Amino acid sequence: MHFSKKEKQDMGLKFVMDLIRTGSPYGKEYKGKLSFYGIEKKEALLKELERTRDLRDALPAVREKAEELFLLLHELRDIRNTVLAAEEGLVLSELDLFELKYFLKRMHRIEEIRSSLLGQDLKMERLDVLTGLLDPADTGLYTFHIYDEYDEVLRGIRQEKKEIEKKIRFAENLEEKNAFLVLRRKIVAKEEVKEYEVRRMLTERIRPYVRILLRNMNMLGELDFLLAKAVLSEKHPTTMPVVEEACSIHMVEGYHPYFAEFLKGRNREFAPVTLEVKRGSTVITGANMGGKSISLKTLFLNTVLVQLGILPFAQEMKTPILGTMHLLSVDRENPDQGLSSFGGEVVKITEVMETMNEMPSLLVLDEPARGTNPVEGMAIVGGLLNFFRDRQHFLLVATHYDIKGLTGIHRYQVRGLREVDLDDYITEEKEDRQKQIADLSDLMDYTLEKWDGTPIVGDAVKIGEFLGFQEELTAEIKKLLK
Length: 482
Known about the structure:
Elements: H1 5-11, H2 13-19, H3 25-32, H4 42-58, H5 63-75, H6 80-87, H7 94-118, H8 128-133, H9 152-169, H10 174-206, H11 210-235, E1 242-243, E2 249-254, H12 257-264, E3 273-277, E4 280-285, H13 292-307, E5 316-319, E6 325-328, H14 341-355, E7 362-366, H15 374-388, E8 394-398, E9 410-416, H16 433-443, E10 445-450, H17 460-466, H18 471-481
Parallel strand pairs: 1-5, 4-8, 4-9, 6-7, 7-8
Antiparallel strand pairs: 2-3, 2-5, 9-10
């Protein structure tokens, strides 16, 4: 499975990934390459979910260590090109050697903390031999230079240079000083040659450890990402999902972090979504302001997160491992090909259906066929629901079309304004339309209820009347509904 940038944005996956704040370049790369586990990696998926949960639960008791770990990860620089250069035979510079020494000392401290938090999980191989190589005087400092301890000849050259520099300072005349300066330049040239030989020797001794260094860097990225996921899961209510091949997709009290944050900024609360999508076809009906789109995206996002090894935002969550997942929630107009909104939607649905195989897939459609006439639109939606009705895939559709005549379809209805008398809130005074819409949203009950197919009067007329439809217009509309 692969999602485009726009698809990640639409479903809210980008928002969640931005909340997973890794500290190191290795963690950032690991996050960027994150992929779906798939059925062949089910055990790895379960392990990833479990260790995310375990670290999340442990965080309150190990707060200080976790914070130190994050700071250490944040201080790491990406030196993969440096170690690869050593492997290719390029002689490392003094700056390269300093960065490697700094990395090793940070890595060893990170490994100590990791061991206390995770035991043997994500264990890195210590490279004390390299730390000792880059600190021959055993100073314990992070700094580095070409130490005298590396070569006695080099030590002698530097001592000779110091003596010449002393003579330069006490030269009696310019001629004598210039002669010493010429001599110093010759000594410096010899020093540079010897330092190069030392750097070449160090590079050769580092080269056998390059693969271990790279594996450790990959492990650092995985550790960084795991810590970031656990921190996110501690800040936001999440759950350990049940992943079973035979189960339905069942979310209890699920929420969408983007919309929850959006509503919080407007002093409103997100209404948790409870929804079960069984194999075959499931449909949600209700008013256009009834939150159907948000319910779809909430279930889709949380199902995607499980497939990626991220704890979902819900009280409970069940899902099988899915082959493919698709969310069609916006117009598919493609002006370059001259396709209408409906035409683009048809093309996309066709492409999606062609990717489905024996593995169960999830297809979520938000108001499909709304770009064509109502009679054919209702038939297309009904046809899709009937087509998937007896298949092993999961189809979830939100629609305002009347599909009560279909059988074998799992149905949900948005409770909406069923128990609200809007007449109590309608005033003669002209109010700000945006305020009215906000008030209406507060009155709306977004709870999804299983629907047995009995006729239910929608909320559209109520909403129109509340937002300003004239009484005569409302009367005409109600006549037609009868």
